[in-house]
Design goal:
Length: 329
């Protein structure tokens, strides 16, 4: 090869020869494109590669039109689903490894993860589903990335806080999602302020690799860019200490509560909570348990914060996290 390209390029090229599916090949070619330095010596190579990418995309579009597009979904499990989205190399896989039992490949080259990788993160007596999505760049995003994101409960944008491309990478994630009418927000707007057909997803930003000195240097400009749009949590995915902090934080952002049910006359055992949105009332919990209980419900008794044991409450009493309920029909 006449041009000077970094070793990662050759490594990617080797993987390209092994790649089987079109999606894989396309992702690797996009990666090669991103790795290749831009100067006169690479002009020809870049234009050739661009042509190949274009052809492959066209072939893919044809398949889509003929209905061959394969859809990738991740069925929800546990108390809520949080997607980990971001540029390559932010530390999504490492986060998943530290917080769940999943074992996605962690690597210093981009685009390691081509399929969604789910894992279950324990939090107290429940489990929350984390889903690592393939990297989002300005040239590459698998169709299922917005599809899965749209359906998630919360988004966590995972960024390498130490990267010189931090702001561009962050911008790209938001812009790519907006193309699909997905808006990452701190707070979901009131119905009258929503755009028709748009999806608003509560979002937090994980500023990862926070222990690196460059992260500290980048912080002021990054906070300026953020301008309070999302909560920023500094993390070190490699540090086990995040297990003490992140599960609670993710739980809080899901804006859910746990309520336990108790049968009249039986001992209170706090097991298998019902998961309900914050603001749910006694009636909602009854519905969550059984339609018939909801239909016949007269009142409930409550054990938990702010109540004396067995206090009687009406059907519209708003629930608190951790309450135990006894339904009376
Ligand atoms: N210093 C440091 N490196 C990290 C951290 N998290 C991930 N990495 C490294 O960053 C690279 C990319 O991580 P990975 O989890 O594969 O990123 P992904 O592409 O977002 O899934 C790997 O070499 C990781 O070991 C962190 O908190 N601190
Ligand atoms: Mg990954």
């Amino acid at each position: 090869m006449p041009t000077n390209v970094p070793p990662q390029y050759h490594e990617a090229e080797a993987r390209l020869r092994q790649a089987k599916t079109r999606e894989e090949k396309l992702a690797i070619m996009e990666e090669m494109m991103a790795i290749m330095p831009k100067h006169k010596g690479t002009d020809k190579l870049r234009s050739e590669l661009n042509q190949k990418i274009k052809k492959m995309k066209e072939a893919g579009d044809k398949d889509k039109k003929s209905g061959a597009r394969k859809s990738v979904t991740v069925p929800k499990e546990g108390a809520g689903q949080i997607v980990l989205v971001g540029p390559p190399n932010g530390g999504k896989s490492q986060l998943l490894r530290t917080l769940t039992n999943a074992t996605p490949e962690v690597a210093a080259y981009p685009f390691t993860t081509r399929m969604p990788a789910p894992g279950m993160m324990p939090f107290e007596d429940i489990r929350i589903q984390l889903v690592e999505l393939p990297a989002v760049t300005d040239t590459a995003m698998e169709q299922f990335v917005p599809d899965i994101t749209r359906n998630a409960d919360v988004a966590a944008i995972v960024l390498d806080l130490a990267s010189p491309d931090l702001l561009d990478a962050a911008d790209t994630v938001l812009k790519q999602m907006e193309k699909h009418y997905i808006f990452f927000v701190n707070k979901v707007p009131e119905p009258e302020e929503r755009k028709i057909g748009a999806v608003y997803l509560r979002t937090i930003v994980l500023g990862n690799k926070a222990e690196l000195p460059e992260a500290e240097d980048n912080l002021p400009i990054f906070e300026e860019w953020l301008a309070g749009r999302f909560p920023l949590i500094k993390t070190s995915a490699v540090n086990e200490e995040i297990k003490e902090m992140l599960p609670r934080l993710f739980y809080d952002h899901l804006r859910i509560i746990r309520v336990y049910t108790k049968a009249p006359g039986k001992k209170l055992e706090k097991q298998d909570p019902l998961i309900l949105p914050i603001g749910s009332n006694v009636m909602d919990a009854a519905h969550g348990l059984h339609k018939e209980i909801a239909q016949k419900l007269k009142y409930a008794r409550v054990w938990g914060e702010g109540m004396h044991d067995g206090q009687q409450v009406a059907r519209d009493e708003v629930l608190k996290d951790g309450w135990a309920l006894e339904f009376h029909v």
